[in-house]
Amino acid sequence: MYQHELARSGKRLFFIRGTYIYTVIAIATLIAWCTRDMGPFRTMEGDCAWFWLSLGVASLGALVRVFTSGWAALGTSGRAKVAAEASELNTTGPYSLVRNPLYVGRILNFTGLAMLSGSWVFGALVFLLGVLIYERISTYEEEFLRGKFGEAHAAWAKDVPSLMPRFHGWVPPKYPFWWKRMIWREQNKLFLLATGVFLTWWARTGFDVAALHGSWVYAYAALIVVRFVIGGLKMIGFFKELS
Whole-model pTM? Predict the structure, then answer.
């Protein structure tokens, strides 16, 4: 009964999961604007170390998603919005270490983005909420997978943990790494990572337009152009077969 209730709430959370990253970035930006502080420490050195730790956690989450998306089978729930889907059971590559590597990546990514606010409280809160939310979403998805793949899913789930990766039992990926599919699935998340860094920095200046100079600001502007180019390619069907 408890598992069924988790699955029911997970289905609702699955439907809106695409909004979480925007909420985290918005709140992190607001905190940075209110506090004008880069980290929870009293020294510049400590706050600088906090920033790099935050960026490292967020980037690690993004990398987990990049490799998972590049090696995952087509026809899975990576970009599904309405309901779980799976043309086959992913059990190799990252899926041989943890059953939900995309969600592990999201939890890390969201936590790092929250830490960029400079608040350890917000970072800890987002981490705990991320675990609770994705526990429920993964329960919903696995209920679907059990119904479709039966014993194959049971055999895989018996040895592979749900959200806490193991550090042994790596199985080489079944498919080669598909860059095109990875770009299709993850380009927006990578862009939002850069956007989170930019917005929390700019918020600490009080959104001072005069502060918008320097090579890394121009690099972010170039990234915006690349994002629109990829969006144009999506519109003309360049990634159609990978949707």
Answer: 0.89
